[in-house]
Amino acid sequence: MDEKKAKKTPISPRRRFFTDLAYTAGLGVMGGLLWAGYTEKAKSSPLTLRPPAALDEPDFLKTCIKCGLCSEACYNRPSNIDRDTGKPRPRTLKMAEAQDDVTIGTPFFIPREVPCYMCDDIPCVTACPTGALDVAKVTNPKTGELDYTMMDMGIAVVDDNSCIAFWGLQCDACYRACPLMDKALRLEYAKNERTGKHAFLKPVVDMHACTGCGLCEKACVTEKPAIFVLPREVALGKPGAHYVKGWDKKDQQRVQERVGKDVTTHDKRSAKNPMDYLNKGVEY
Amino acid sequence: MKWHNVKYLVLRRTVQIGLLVLYFMGNWYGWKVLQGDLSASMIFGKIPLSDPFAVLQIFATGAVVATNALIGALIIVLFYGIIGGRAFCSWVCPVNLVTDLAAWLRRKLLIDRIERKVWISRNIRYYMIVLALIVSALVGLAAFEVVSPITILNRGIVFGMGAGMGLIVAIFLFDLFVVKNGWCGHVCPLGGVHSIIGRYSLIRVRHNSDNCTLCMKCKTVCPEVEVLGMIGKRSEFVSRGECTNCGRCVDVCDDDALGFELRNFLETNTGGKE
To answer: Range of B76's domain?
Structure first.
């Protein structure tokens, strides 16, 4: 009886309103969580190399509108025409598809397939309508002109176990391919103690000059390239502000500027008197 | 088949496919007429266009965009807001080709006659807009742009198709077997945005009920049937923003009861009331 009564009880407008509200909110939260979960996953592509002058990855992902104008500018640049065939070569900047391990629709490049040729007019960057590729990042502040040496797509890393130059074989393919030869990539000469009469010509990357164009990776002769480009935030460490190069004027300047500020480390241990440390020992 | 029965359909497909061809040529052959894709493009390398909803999502993530993208979005809003109405959906968007095919097949295979078990609200698209903006703000990535079949299909055609094709097939099947006009008429938030933008546009379909013979052909083909509430009842403009200005109703009408006209806001019977 009671059940039947309950079914017949009309829902008041107020109850209907709140039930509707809960219904909509519930569906919205459910959908939103699924959507946010997928989007969060789609965002993560830490090993992706972006076009020149791209903003830092989180900002780049926010700002890129996925229009492909950079990719088209890359493909259709006059310097991309193959002199032999008269046709354009494959493009450096590809647009990510669903199967690529890159946020869908965003531009990226794979140096061992097609490296960045570091055009001096940087057509991809000037084509960007949203500023995800920031012209200011490749503009020389003194001259106000585009400067391709300021690009920073990534940094080349050498695996000295598989690099045959480190074995003592003579190979300088990457060195000769580097557009900033002797700046971004130089050869370090060392004596080969094993033979006693030969030299090593070891490729060494300069982290400041290297743009991450990947021409070295493309040129590398080993089966799987022994020199390869990684995003800078993946490949580079960070020593921290408290290590100072005593021989470097600029680094000294940095310390000078901090004089007067509190530079002492404060933690649980520093709160104790040093004498206690000596007399009582330290509890870890 | 008479010309007047397919006039707007042919025109519409010409524009739709023509734009895709221009985008394709812009990418692969460097034609300067129309470059980029539907998210953002360049006309003759000078005039920027951009998707206002994409720009809105970018704002929601907390990022700012360069002036080119802003101007582009403004041009789009003004064009559709003043002139075109929701014409983007039926005259430009490539997903319309897919969903129209599904709707046509539904009619031919008589799927429409089977009682529909799944009912979903046509207002989902407006909730989707809000949800897209919230998720964009939470995650820091334009949320609809990573799932949008519009840009996936558009990029697929312009740059080369990949696994994203799966989503297009899914939408085709959804429209064919689950809900009539399911994607474009119920779910798509970009359609919602264009419904809002085009609400007061000048180009509108106008119904003349004196000529109407109540054959209801227009209601069979209309992807947004709810906008045709006045058929056979009142002579007035189709005033709701959800009308995509596709012109199929004008095409199929043999009684000259429907046609495109410039909206007269002074006409007494212009409101959306039924």
So the answer is: 3-196
Whole-angstrom Cα Rg for chain B: 19
Q: What is the CATH number of the domain that holds B225?
A: 3.30.70.20
pLDDT in tens, A108-155: 999 999 999 999 999 999 999 999 999 999 999 999 999 999 999 999
Question: In this structure, what token pair is assigned to residue B190?
Answer: 């970009």
Scan residues 87-106 of B and list those with Cβ closer than 8 Å to A. none
pTM for the complete prediction? Answer: 0.88
Residue of A nearest to B130 (CA): A28
pLDDT reported for residue A282: 64
Scan for tokens 């524009």, then name that residue.
B15
Residues 44-83 of B with CB under 8 A from A: 48, 50-51, 54-55, 58, 61-66, 68-69, 72
Domain boundary among B196, B224, B243: B196
Q: Which positions in chain B touch A90 (Cβ < 8 Å)?
A: none
Last residue of a domain, which of B172, B196, B220?
A: B196
CB burial readout B218-237, b (16+ within 10 A) else e: beebbbbbebbbbbeeeebb
The angle formed by the CA atoms of residues A39, B121 and B150, to the nearest 5 degrees, is 40
DSSP 3-state of A226: coil
Give the separation between CA B62 and CA A32, rounded to whole angstroms. Answer: 18
CB within 8 Å: B58 and A38: no
- Is A74 at the interface with chain B, CB within 8 A? no
**How many domains is chain B built from?**
2
Mean pLDDT of A179-206: 95
What is the three-class DSSP state of B202? coil
Contact A70, A125 (CB under 8 A): yes
Question: pLDDT (tens digit, 9 = 90+) per residue, A28-67?
Answer: 999 999 999 999 998 888 899 999 999 999 999 999 999 9
A62 contacts in chain B (CB < 8 Å): 58, 61-63, 140-142
